[in-house]
């Protein structure tokens, strides 16, 4: 069983930056692809970024491409999401997730990101 704990959220002005962290425990971190998702009030959960087990392959939707960067440190069992040029529409609860197969099996509790205009 993998436990995931996000941190680093907060309130930031539009155009600012935040770095989210997700610390994993209870499993072999390098066996999991990792992802970041977000959910704003009244909206469905949205994929934000993913990174392969080795850290070589990453994916982003167009909405964040060029502004967000996902990375991981397998020695520290941690995945990061660097968010730059933040916009009010990036306001959401951000979750990290882990998967060993096609579906994300494990989820954190989330960290709130609020971007003021």
In words, what does this structure look like?
With 117 residues, this protein is mainly β. The radius of gyration is 13 Å and the shape is globular. It contains no helices and 11 strands. Strands 2, 4, 5, 6, 9, 10 and 11 form a 7-stranded mixed β-sheet that branches. Strands 1-3-8-7 form a 4-stranded antiparallel β-sheet, with no helix packed on it. 32% of the residues are buried. It has strands at 3-7, 10-13, 18-25, 33-39, 46-51, 58-59, 68-73, 78-83, 92-99, 106-107, 111-116. It starts with a strand and ends with a strand. Strand 9 and strand 10 (106-107) form a beta hairpin. The mean pLDDT is 97.
Radius of gyration: 13 Å
- Strand-residue proportion: over 45%
Classification by helices and strands: mainly beta
Give the overall shape, derived from the CA principal axes: globular
Name the poorly predicted regions. none
Number of strand elements = 11
Main β-sheet description: 7 strands, mixed
Key descriptive features of the protein:
117 residues, mainly beta, seven-stranded mixed sheet, four-stranded antiparallel sheet, globular
Task: Reconstruct the topology from this structure.
Blueprint (H helix, E strand, L loop, with lengths): L2 E5 L2 E4 L4 E8 L7 E7 L6 E6 L6 E2 L8 E6 L4 E6 L8 E8 L6 E2 L3 E6 L1
Parallel strand pairs: 2-11
Antiparallel strand pairs: 1-3, 3-8, 4-5, 4-9, 5-6, 7-8, 9-10, 9-11
């Amino acid at each position: 069983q993998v436990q995931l704990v996000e941190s680093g959220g907060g309130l930031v002005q539009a155009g600012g930056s935040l770095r989210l962290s997700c610390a994993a425990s209870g499993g072999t971190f390098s066996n999991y692809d990792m992802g970041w998702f977000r959910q704003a009030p009244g909206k469905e959960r949205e994929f934000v970024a993913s990174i392969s087990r080795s850290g070589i392959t990453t994916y982003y939707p167009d909405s964040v491409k060029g502004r967000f960067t996902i990375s991981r440190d397998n020695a520290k069992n941690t995945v990061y999401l660097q968010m730059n040029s933040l916009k009010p529409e990036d306001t959401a609860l951000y979750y990290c997730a882990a998967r060993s197969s096609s579906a994300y099996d494990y989820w954190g509790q989330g960290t709130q990101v609020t971007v003021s205009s």
